[in-house]
Design goal:
The chain is mainly α and 156 residues long. It has one domain. The protein is 82% helix and 0% strand. Helix 1 (2-30) runs antiparallel to helix 3, helix 3 (43-64) runs antiparallel to helix 4 (77-94) and helix 3 runs parallel beside helix 7. The longest helix is centred in the last third of the chain and has 36 residues, at 120-155.
Length: 156
């Protein structure tokens, strides 16, 4: 039972974390009404990012805790998940950073805000691609370890 609860929990927590980050930034910048309308407008980009990050979290938990296959090495899956998470967070910020431009010049970040606002959709698409790459890397590691496990009895 634990083999299924841990990945499910990781999926739910990962998805909730990235969704909370997105909604939190938007709510902080403009309020709840705007956050909900922005989420509805960008849902075709935001939902795949949220779900993709949750899937990566679940796969990482499977690899990390060796739940289904005794994995010898998790390779660079943690790094990949971190990079994908960072890209996802940047994409989430890119869609709402232009709403905090009143504060950004004080922080010296107005050029960054302009850049992120201009390339909001491409950032989201890159984030989705990074999620898919991260999922692919983790599935490849699981596949490779499963192949090693199947070949082991023949060599004995």
């Amino acid at each position: 039972m634990k083999r299924f609860l841990i990945p499910l929990t990781a999926f739910l927590l990962g998805s909730a974390l990235i969704a909370s980050f997105y909604i939190g930034i938007l709510t902080w910048a403009q309020g709840w009404d705007y956050a909900s309308s922005q989420f509805a407008r960008d849902r075709t980009y935001v939902l795949p990012i949220i779900i993709g990050f949750g899937i990566q979290a679940a796969l990482y938990a499977i690899l990390r805790f060796r739940l289904f296959i005794p994995v010898a090495s998790t390779a660079h899956t943690g790094t990949m998940m971190g990079a994908s998470g960072g890209t996802s967070a940047t994409a989430m910020v890119a869609c709402c950073i232009h709403h905090v431009t009143d504060v950004l010049p004080i922080l010296g970040l107005s050029a960054a805000a302009t850049f992120l606002t201009r390339y909001q959709r491409p950032f989201m698409l890159v984030s989705i691609a990074m999620n898919l790459i991260g999922i692919g890397v983790m599935l490849f590691v699981l596949y490779r370890e499963r192949q090693k496990l199947q070949l082991a009895p023949e060599t004995i």
